[in-house]
Amino acid sequence: QGQEKLSCNPKKENGTHVVLCELGNPMKAGARITVDMELSVSGLEDVEDAITFHLQLRSKNSPSNVSVTVTVPVEAEAEMELRGISLPATTVLPTSWHWVEGSRRLEDHGIKVEHVYEIHNRGPSTVSGVTVSLAVPHLLGDHVLLYLLELGTEGGMNCSHHPTLNPAQV
Questions:
Q1: Would you say residue 108 has pLDDT above 70?
Q2: What pLDDT does residue 69 have?
Q3: What is the pLDDT of residues 12-37, one digit of tens each?
Q4: Which of 14, 17, 111, 163 has the most other CB atoms within 10 Å of its CB?
Q5: Where are the domains of the chain?
Q6: How far is C-alpha 11 from the geometric centre of its chain's CA atoms?
C-alpha cells in the first residue's frame, strides 16, 4: 500500500557477505509485497564478467524456503586520455651543424628534445594492464632523424624499449 524503507543489516557468514532484511513482523496471511533493492558493490576489479546474488525468502512460520539466483553482468568502463608535449616545442638545427659519427658527446648528435607523454584515466572505473605503444621515427632512409637517448617512467609503470635506444652509448 505505501512505500517503506527496509531495515537491513549486513553480516558475514562462512566467508560470504549476507544482507539480512526484515520485511514485516508479523505479516498477514496471503500478503503480497514487492521489494526493490539497490546494492552498491565495490571491489569488482577481479570479477570476470558477472556477479551472482543468491536471494532467499525465509519465514519463521513456514518450513519452506524460496530461493532464487540472480546474475548481473559486470562491465568496467574507463576513459583513457593520452597527452604529449615536446620540450622545446620547436627546434631548428643551425645550417653549420653536422652530425659527428662515432662521437660520444651529446651535442654532436643534435639538439636535445624531450618528449613527455602522460596517460590519464578519466574513469569511472579503475584500470590495470594498460599498454601504451609509441612509434617514434628515428631513421629517414639511411639517415638518423632522431637519436633516441633514453626512456623513463614515473608512477609505478613498467617500460620496455626498442634496441635502437642510445646505440652509440652517448
A1: yes
A2: 92
A3: 888 788 888 877 666 777 777 787 87
A4: 111
A5: 7-73, 77-169
A6: 30
Grid cell for residue 82 = 593520452
Q: How many residues does the chain have?
A: 170
For the residues 114-142, what does the mean pLDDT come to?
A: 83
- CA gap 53, 73 in Å, rounded: 11
Determine contact, residues 52/41, Cβ cutoff 8 Å.
Answer: no
With cell 505505501, the residue in question is 2
Q: State mean pLDDT over 147-156.
A: 81
Q: Which residues pair with 85 in a beta bridge?
A: 116
- DSSP secondary structure letters along 76-121: --EEEEEEEEEESS-----TT----TT---GGGG----EEEEEEEE
Is residue 23 within 8 A of residue 61, CB to CB? The reply is: no
